[in-house]
């Protein structure tokens, strides 16, 4: 009897231990605060994160979200992740996508660029930062980098997610294929795809990453029902495409678009992109898909450097961005968008008044006279400033402004900013002011990564960064940037055109160049 009772107690103890183990395993998967370097179960296997020096944020870097797009998987939609055994150490960024070697240029010093290595076609990795506190249902931000769809990666220092995670947000940054690896179309690729489309592999990578977030982010304390997508430059244009794409439906509820959209001029059609693909194949001596997929990455990159950017493929993008929004077929989101004051400084040499006026007349024809009223050239100095403003507005301002107007007209919430801070700098860097990308380390409170030898920042910059990070965090959490201790940021409405001026003095004001932007957009729309 005692033996039987002892055996029963032993079985109960073993069962209790098994149950405890199951509970602990589950807690470890959801709650990173159980141990210093927590193990989390994600699609594909287990990963082990790293606790930061301050002891308040965990990071998980280099997490595969799809199979390596190499060999036979080059130019295919992202495939299911290849499972691994054991525990994968998630302490380093995965390789950046294949591109030219990163090197500082213009206003962009090293902290704005990806690491020089590793770079590989095997690049479909993402990174997660989450606070130590095991709070469930945290809002989630998914960051998409810029780089003209031909460069970039999630490993750039200014994209670090620690400060945002400290604000109670799960920060996710993702890699996607760029250049000819991300945006190459060809009739044979279209034929084998199963959806009669090819070319938008980079966008499909982003969608695959968002699906990974839906399936896995709860294990990091995130709320899959409260996801914001954000990006800058080509990342902002990606956000624009994802909001427009039916394939991204239900994957996010809010969007942050920093300097980038594509409304006035449509992306290339599938037929146009396929023709470019055929020309590239002929130039490389590749007569079959097998030949193309066997080409060294370096040869393809060299031959097809100009091949980049989304395509109206009938699948990821069923129509132009403008048409999808006009038909209200986009995914309805709450939007925060804007652009920087001096973004035109990095895009081409300046001309004197005579040459600038001649160029405007040649390019814009009968619209030139009206345009020169807003971008005048009575002196060389005035012409230089007008060139900067026109470059800024035709590349970014008019596009993001039109998105804001469309959003407001459709009674969808939208908040608009203008980043005005001329970043303190030395040498040639002092010429760039509020340059393209300058706002990123402010918005995500990452000024600690900025090279202080090149850019001797001041207390005013720290204060601006803390305020912007608070606005961004509030928007990510609630869809409204306003919060305690912050100057009020009014919603943008088409009648009022109120925007937030982000500078050493933060204030709301009417958009100063509304008429110029409206005229420029109408001109850009003209074929």
User: What is the fold named in CATH at topology level of the largest domain?
Assistant: Rossmann fold
CATH superfamily of the largest domain: Alpha/Beta hydrolase fold, catalytic domain
Radius of gyration: 25 Å
CATH architecture of the largest domain: 3-Layer(aba) Sandwich
The poorly predicted ranges are 1-36
CATH C-level class of the largest domain: Alpha Beta
Order of helices and strands: HEEEEEEEHEHHHEHEHHHHEHHHEHHEEH
Number of helices: 16
The number of domains: 2
* Backbone structural class: alpha/beta
- What is the multimeric organization of the chains shown? single chain
Q: Count of DSSP E strands?
A: 14
Domain Carboxylesterase type B: 37-504
Organism: Spirosoma oryzae
Keywords: Hydrolase
EC number: 3.1.1.-
SSE topology sketch:
Blueprint: H1 2-30, E1 39-42, E2 45-48, E3 50-51, E4 57-64, E5 87-89, E6 125-131, E7 138-144, H2 162-166, E8 170-174, H3 179-182, H4 187-192, H5 201-216, E9 222-232, H6 234-244, E10 254-258, H7 270-283, H8 289-294, H9 297-303, H10 321-326, E11 334-340, H11 353-364, H12 368-374, H13 380-409, E12 414-419, H14 440-443, H15 459-478, E13 498-502, E14 507-510, H16 514-525
Helix pairs in contact: 11-12, 11-13, 13-16
Keywords: Hydrolase
EC number: 3.1.1.-
Organism: Spirosoma oryzae
């Amino acid at each position: 009897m005692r033996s039987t009772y002892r055996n029963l107690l032993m079985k109960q103890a073993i069962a209790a231990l098994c149950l405890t183990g199951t509970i602990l395993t589950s807690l470890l998967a959801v709650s990173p605060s159980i141990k210093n370097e927590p193990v989390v179960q994600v699609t594909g296997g287990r990963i082990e994160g790293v606790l930061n020096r301050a002891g308040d944020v965990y990071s998980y870097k280099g997490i595969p979200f799809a199979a390596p797009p190499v060999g036979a998987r080059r130019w295919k939609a992202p495939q299911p992740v290849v499972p691994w055994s054991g525990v994968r150490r998630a302490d380093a960024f995965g390789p950046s996508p294949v591109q030219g070697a990163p090197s500082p240029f213009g206003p962009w010093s090293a902290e704005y660029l990806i690491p020089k290595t590793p770079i590989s076609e095997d690049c479909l990795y993402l990174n997660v930062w989450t606070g130590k506190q095991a709070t469930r249902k945290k809002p989630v931000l998914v960051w998409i980098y810029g780089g003209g769809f031909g460069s970039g990666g999630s490993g750039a220092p200014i994209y670090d997610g620690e400060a945002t995670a400290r604000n109670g947000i799960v920060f996710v940054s993702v890699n996607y294929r760029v250049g000819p690896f991300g945006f190459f179309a060809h009739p044979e690729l279209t034929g084998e795809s199963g959806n009669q489309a090819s070319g938008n592999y980079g966008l499909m990578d982003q969608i695959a990453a968002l699906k990974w977030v839906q399936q896995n982010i709860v294990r990091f304390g995130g709320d899959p029902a409260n996801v914001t997508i954000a990006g800058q430059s080509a990342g902002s244009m990606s956000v624009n495409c994802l909001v427009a794409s039916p394939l991204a439906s239900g994957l996010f509820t809010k969007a942050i678009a920093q300097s980038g959209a594509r409304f006035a001029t449509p992306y290339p059609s599938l037929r146009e992109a396929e023709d470019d693909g055929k020309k590239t194949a002929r130039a490389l001596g590749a007569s079959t898909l097998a030949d193309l997929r066997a080409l060294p990455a370096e040869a393809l990159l060299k031959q097809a450097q100009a091949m980049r950017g989304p395509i109206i493929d009938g699948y990821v993008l069923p129509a132009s961005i403008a048409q999808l929004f006009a038909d209200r077929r986009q995914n309805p989101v709450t939007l925060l968008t804007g652009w920087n004051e001096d973004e035109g400084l990095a895009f081409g040499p300046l001309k004197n008044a005579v040459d600038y006026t001649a160029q405007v007349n040649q390019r814009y024809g009968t619209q030139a006279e009206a345009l020169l009223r807003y971008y005048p050239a009575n002196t060389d100095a005035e012409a230089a400033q007008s060139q900067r403003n026109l470059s800024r507005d035709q590349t970014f301002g008019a596009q993001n402004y039109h998105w804001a107007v469309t959003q407001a007209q459709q009674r969808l919430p939208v908040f608009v900013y203008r980043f005005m801070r001329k970043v303190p700098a030395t040498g040639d860097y002092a010429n760039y002011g509020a340059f393209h990308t300058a706002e990123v380390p402010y918005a995500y409170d990452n000024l600690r990564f900025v090279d202080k030898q090149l850019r001797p920042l001041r207390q005013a910059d720290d204060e601006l960064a803390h305020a912007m990070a608070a606005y961004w965090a509030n928007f990510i959490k609630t869809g409204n940037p306003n919060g305690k201790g912050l100057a009020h940021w009014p919603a943008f409405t088409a009648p009022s055109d109120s925007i937030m001026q982000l500078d050493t003095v933060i204030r709301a004001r009417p958009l100063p160049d509304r008429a110029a932007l409206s005229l420029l957009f109408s001109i850009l729309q003209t074929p």
